[in-house]
Every structure is written in structure tokens, then in C-alpha cells.
Amino acid sequence: MTDFEFSVENLTASAGDKSILKNVEFNHDYNSLAALMGPMGGGKSTFLKVLAGSAGEEGIATQFDRASYRGKPLGPSHFPLYIRQKIREKASGGSSYEVAKQRIAEIEAVCDGNDEALCIDEPTTGLEKEDGELLMQRLKEISKTRSVLMVTHNTVEVEQFCDHVALFGGGQIVEHMSRDQFFSAKEGTHAERFLRTGGLNLPSLDTPAHLLSHEHRGMPADIDAASLPDDCGRVWVVRNAFALMETPKEGQN
Fold first, then answer.
1. How many other β-carbons are positioned within 10 Å of the β-carbon of residue 108?
2. How many CB atoms lie within 10 A of CB 146?
3. CA distances from 174 to 136, 159, 234 (A)
């Protein structure tokens, strides 16, 4: 058994000309329930599809330095289990409780006879609170014998049931920590901002460099970052960057 059940290094994903993920690093322990959280469009569901081997089916191109599952490379016959998000799903009769029972039955059927990790996208979406908790209790039980990675926006369920949280924003994982660390995050961190506002002050991957605020711009190309002191911060001045010229009048050279 390797140190991590999932290990991903320098993952990039895109759909056509649209960048979705960039430089993602991820390591996940065995037998735990992990939440993938973050604002809409942060790359959570795409990342889950990459782990589950279904990204290519949806036209998502991926590159990475390494992507492994249980010590072996992710490949055509070596992926965890995967349950897609159920959008506006209606059960016979339409009640939330019936929908929850159907989803639990699907989870149990998929997991029957194997010990593979389970990737599941927004399992409690559309359910009432008590029915969502019923489903989460089953996922928690399952996570005692296999890992469960789920995309969710429900912080109450995460705080009550999950072991770890990976927070996505701007196409990257900006926080990856235990549940307790996540919910006690210090003021000013990505985790604290997300819990307080439900969002992150991060640009999308395709935002042109000249439109980025200064804190999101990289170091100027002509500055050797290795030569700067560790405590210099992120403020710099580039001298002689602009020149003013008087436009000649007609007839003048």
C-alpha cells in the first residue's frame, strides 16, 4: 500500500480554448470522506471526472506529470467508481425521501462486491435537509472501508460528516486540509473567505494578464525572484517603464 490512495501532480485540464484546471496538486489518504468545495466554475466536477476517467468522454483534454490511484497510474482499467450528478432528478411520487432512497440504493449497488474508492458529484443536491443527512450517514459508513470523494456546496453536511476538504478556486486547489482546520481557518485565508462569503476573490484561468489586479499578477519577467530576500513581499517597482514623447506637428521632423 502506498502512502496516498490518490496522488496528482501538475494537472492541467481544458475544454477547447477554455482552461479549467492548472497546476493542480492533490494527495488523498485511504478510507476517508473528502469534500471538494468552492465557487461555481472552480473546477471541482472536472477534477472528479479526471480522477474517475470520464473527462475524455466529455471532450476535456488533460495533461499531468503524474496521476495515480492506489500506487498505479490512472488508466483505462484502473479508475475508482464514479456516480454523476443528478440534475432535477424526480423519483416516482417525487418526494425528497424517495429520491434519497433511490440514490442510496444506487450507491450500494455500485459499491457491492468491491472495495474501490467512490467519486460522487453533489449526492444530496435537491434533497431536503433530513433526507440529505440520511444519505450522508450512508456515505460516512461506506468511507470506513473505502475512500469517498464528493463534490458539494453544503457546508453543514461537510462539517458534520467529512474528514477532509479540498477547496477549489480559479482552476486550482487553494486549500487542502482536515475538516477541523478548514472550519477554524484564520481570517484572511481562502478557507475563511469562502465560509464567510461563499466565494473567492480569484480570477478565472483565462483572464488576460493586463486585466488582473496586482496581487494576481506574476513576477515581471526581468526580475530574478531567487535574488530577492524572503521577506520582500509582493510589491516591486519597475523604473523607466514608460517614456513620454511629444508628437511632431505637421511639417516638422
1. 11
2. 19
3. 25, 19, 18
* Cα angle for residues 5, 167, 129 (degrees, 5° grid): 95
For 250, the grid coordinates are 505637421
pTM over 0.85: no
Q: What's the distance, Cα to Cα, between the start and end of the chain in Å? A: 77
Exposed, middle or buried, 135 (CB in 10 Å: 0-12/13-18/19+)?
buried
**E strands in 127-212:** 148-151, 164-169, 172-178
CB atoms within 10 A of CB 137: 13
Question: What value does the mean pLDDT of the chain take?
Answer: 84
Q: How far apart are CA 81 and CA 74, in angstroms?
A: 12
- The maximal CA–CA distance of the chain, rounded, in angstroms, is 89
Model confidence pLDDT, tens digit, residues 73-97? 998 889 999 999 876 555 445 799 9
pLDDT tens for each residue of 103-159: 999 999 999 999 999 999 999 999 999 999 999 999 999 999 999 999 999 999 999
The β-bridge partners of 178 are 164
